[in-house]
Amino acid sequence: MKIDAHLEKLRNTESVRRRLDPKADYELWYWMTLTGGTAAINAALHSVGATDDGDYWCTQAPDIYLGPGKKPGEFTPSFRRRADIIHVHMPDVSAKLPPELDEAIRAMDVLEEVRDPYIRGDAIVTQEVVDRVDGAYRKAVELAREIVAKSGRAVA
Amino acid sequence: MTPEMHQAKAERIENSFKKCTTADVEACIEVAMLAGTHWFNFALHKMGVSPPQKDALHAQYMLDVDRYRLNVVAPDLLAAMDEVEGLRALHVRGNAPGGGTAAKRALDLLAQLRQTAKTARPPA
Q1: pLDDT > 70? residue A99
Q2: Of A145, B11, B54, B64, which has the fewest Cβ atoms less than 10 A away?
């Protein structure tokens, strides 16, 4: 997906994120954080040329992407490499990345580590978990925005 | 998790969603997936299709044999969950046209998953 579309996803999820209480609404707040952070990483990966920004979109199956079909409103799956990631490391990106992008991905790793126990499971959400997620997200998004801006693109 | 724990999680997520509107396309679809998956597991456990020790993460990640069993027991439940997952590719990870319609459809599917789950019973 194009960089501008990823940045729009980031703005949309940030808008929702701001309305939610990080602790009382943790599950949805976390999910908007994860979705927005991953969109920012996708934008950064495209801007350094590590992945392809074509108009095909991640399905839940790694390497299978949906794109426009032959008729309007139809979508066709295809097997692709080097396109958008679903999550960081899903799939792994083989290209050598600038250090700041590696750092942004490591920050997103923090979010991924705490996903299942609190979203799918019944682990108790603490302020420490909220702070870890929030700090890692802010770092990942800030780095990703800087990377995109360096490519000469305006970042809202 | 037990059905009661899934219900508590689903209702907590749905309560958070009250701060969103159908203009929040990504949130509508993701709340349908997040809360819907808890209702989905609630139903699977209540129907005896899977035990509380075996939660589904995504409907598409279930084994073929488990999808087949569920398709016999509650085809509408599986179809609703699959449709929610399909909306994610197009409108959360993608920017296909028709996001507003998809957002409303996702909320309808969530209501359907909730209703099916709440009436789920073990086989006779």
Answers
A1: yes
A2: B64
Q: Is residue A71 part of a domain?
A: no
Residue A33 within any structural domain of the chain:
yes
Per-residue 3-state assignment (H helix, E strand, C coil) for B30-87: HHHHHHHHHHHHHHHHHHCCCCCCCCCCCHHHCCHHHHHHHHHHCHHHHHHHHHHHHH
Can you tell me the ipTM of this complex?
A: 0.93
- Is residue A99 one of the residues assigned to a domain? yes
Asked whether residue A156 carries a pLDDT value surpassing 70, the answer given is no
- B32 assigned to some structural domain: yes
Token pair belonging to B14? 């749905």
What domain range is B63 assigned to? 3-118
pLDDT of residue A36: 98
Domain with A126 in it: 3-52+86-150
Peptide bond into A91 cis (omega under 30): yes
Q: Does the CB of A70 have a partner CB in chain B at under 8 Å? A: no
Q: What's the domain count of chain A?
A: 1
Interface with chain A: mutation pick from B7, B93, B95, highest number of A CBs within 10 Å: B93
Looking at the structure of chain B, the number of domains it has is 1
Is residue A19 in some structural domain?
A: yes
Reported as a single tens digit per residue, the pLDDT across A112-146 is 999 989 998 889 999 999 999 999 999 999 999 99
Q: Which residues contact A103 (CB under 8 A, 6 or more apart)?
A: A139, A143
Instruction: Kindly report the backbone phi and psi dihedral angles of residue B86, in degrees, each rounded to the nearest multiple of 5, phi listed first.
Output: -65, -35
CATH assignment at residue A130: 1.20.120
Q: Select the residue from A15, A28, A42, A63 to test the B interface by mutation, using most B Cβ atoms within 10 A.
A: A28
What pLDDT, on a 0 to 100 scale, did the predictor assign at position B39?
97
Please state the length of chain A. Answer: 156
